[in-house]
UniProtKB/TrEMBL annotation:
Family annotation (InterPro entries): Asp/hSer_DH_NAD-bd, HDH_cat, NAD(P)-bd_dom_sf
Sequence ranges assigned to domain Homoserine dehydrogenase catalytic in this UniProt record: 129-307
Family: Belongs to the homoserine dehydrogenase family.
EC class: oxidoreductase
EC numbers on record: 1.1.1.3
UniProt lineage: Bacteria, Pseudomonadati, Bacteroidota, Flavobacteriia, Flavobacteriales
UniProt-listed NCBIfam families: PRK06349.1
Protein name: Homoserine dehydrogenase
Domain Aspartate/homoserine dehydrogenase NAD-binding: 11-121
Keywords: Amino-acid biosynthesis, Methionine biosynthesis, Oxidoreductase, Threonine biosynthesis
Alphabetized SUPFAM superfamilies for the sequence: Glyceraldehyde-3-phosphate dehydrogenase-like, C-terminal domain (SSF55347), NAD(P)-binding Rossmann-fold domains (SSF51735)
Gene Ontology BP annotations: methionine biosynthetic process; threonine biosynthetic process
Length: 397
């Protein structure tokens, strides 16, 4: 029989209020919000003041509340709330990818020790049901790779630069004005948000738990005119792609990099704030998920789905992790890349390549395309004296 849920809700911002509205329209679900905790006592709210508290204890110590839904924008506070809730036997639903990615191991442990679930479908690609599919559907098939556009703001900026020919600065400004990008956008544009999501995908697809520092993320903030022109001349687009794949050495390659995509690629038409994920399995070949990766109602719909799953006691079994297979991150990789650089650095950079396919110089800048080891790519990327930008052509497997 389905359980009745009494929800203690943390956060009443974009997603929190979105969830409130979505729950009003889903009367069939046996779930009601009992209390809401927010931070700022001086804010005007969309609903009456008596619905709110500013004291987390009012939710966490209430024995009638059996589910905490955590929708706040502070990953450290979110972790404290989640930890306390799980320890007191309350199930938790969260949308916070940074919290889940940074504390994956501890959160797994807390769930096991206290025998209560933590669900976080909304943390990865908002409305797209990717985590539960990886957990359940792809358990029996041989998953080879998962790759996707998992960050809506950067996709919006890239769409504006390629389709509407806006400069990077203007596209970013427009994304900020429309609320798609933060005033300090580096979490998105630097590829960090995409990396947090990739860490979650990596655990649910291949059973590898990594820390944020373990994975390379190159964002779109360093992209320049040469690579955009290169893409446009070939009829391609540049997308920020997070990917994890089985390498021929048995390990798993995983990173976030800007990538050229051709019209044949399923990610080519994933534009604006949409997200898209392509899975490839040994027998089913490719499957493609596309949907809204942000926004109040799309994100709330994934939170709602987790709440609904709790009414029938659903929990992630972390099947791939439980198998205990030793899977390491693949480091011995070769990639075909485009590297844009300053004219003066051309000869310094060529020796990093195993094979140079093309090189070009104009008045002040140039590019090299060719094959580079993952190790050398990371060395060049780390060198802050070099002005450069990498765009992936493909991974050699
Ligand atoms: N927005 C999206 O499209 C989207 C998509 C996917 C995932 N997410 C994730 O969903 C979560 C919420 O995002 P959002 O866009 O809804 O954020 P938001 O609009 O900035 O709202 C944040 C809410 O959290 C509350 N809050 C902050 N610190 C708190 C604390 N210590 N205790 C209690 N309440 C606290 C704020 O309270 P006040 O109202 O008092 O300021 C506010 O109500 C984040 O983890 C985000 O990454 C968002």
């Amino acid at each position: 029989m389905r359980k009745t849920l009494n929800i203690g809700l943390f956060g009443f911002g974009c997603v929190g209020f979105g969830l409130y509205e979505v729950l009003q329209k889903t009367p069939g679900l046996k779930a009601n919000i009992k209390n809401i905790c927010v931070k700022n006592p001086n804010k005007t709210r969309e609903i009456a003041a008596e619905n709110f508290t500013f004291n987390p204890d009012d939710l966490l110590n209430d024995p009638e509340i059996n589910v905490i839904v955590e929708l706040i924008d502070d990953a450290d506070a979110a972790f404290e709330i989640t930890k306390r809730a799980l320890k007191s036997g309350k199930a938790v639903v969260s949308a916070n990818k940074k919290m889940v990615a940074e504390h994956f191991e501890e959160l797994l442990q807390l769930q096991r020790e206290n025998n209560v679930p933590l669900l976080y479908e909304a943390a990865c690609c908002a409305s797209m049901p990717i985590i539960r599919n990886l957990e359940e559907y792809y358990d029996n098939d041989l998953l080879e790779s998962i790759q996707g556009i998992v960050n809506g703001s950067t996709n919006y900026i890239l769409t504006k630069t390629s389709r509407d020919k806006l400069s990077y600065e203007d596209a970013l400004k427009e994304a900020q004005e429309k609320g798609f990008a933060e005033s300090n956008p580096i979490l998105d544009t630097g590829g960090f948000d995409a990396k947090y999501k990739l860490l979650i995908l990596l655990a649910h697809s291949f059973g590898h738990i990594a820390k944020p520092d373990d994975l390379l993320n190159i964002g779109i903030d360093g992209l320049g005119g040469l690579e955009l022109k290169y893409a446009s001349e070939k009829g391609w687009k540049i997308k920020l792609v997070a990917q994890a794949f089985k390498h021929s050495d048995g390990n798993v390659g995983a990173f976030v990099l800007p990538k050229f995509v051709s019209p044949e690629d399923r990610l080519y038409n994933v534009d604006d704030v949409f997200n898209g994920v392509v899975t490839k399995t040994s027998f089913a070949d490719e499957q493609f998920f596309v949907g809204r990766g942000a926004g109040a109602h799309p994100t709330a719909s994934a939170v709602l789905s987790d709440i609904s799953a709790l009414t029938y006691d659903y929990k992630y079994e972390y099947k791939k992790i439980s198998r205990g297979e030793e899977i390491a991150l693949a480091e011995e990789l070769d990639l075909n890349v485009f590297l844009r650089h300053e004219k003066l650095d051309a000869e310094t950079l060529k020796p990093y390549f195993k094979k140079v396919s093309e090189s070009y110089l104009n008045g002040e800048a140039g590019y090299i395309t060719g094959t580079i080891s993952f190790e050398n790519l990371k060395k060049v990327q780390k060198d802050e004296t070099l002005k450069k930008s990498f765009v992936l052509l493909d991974v050699i497997r």
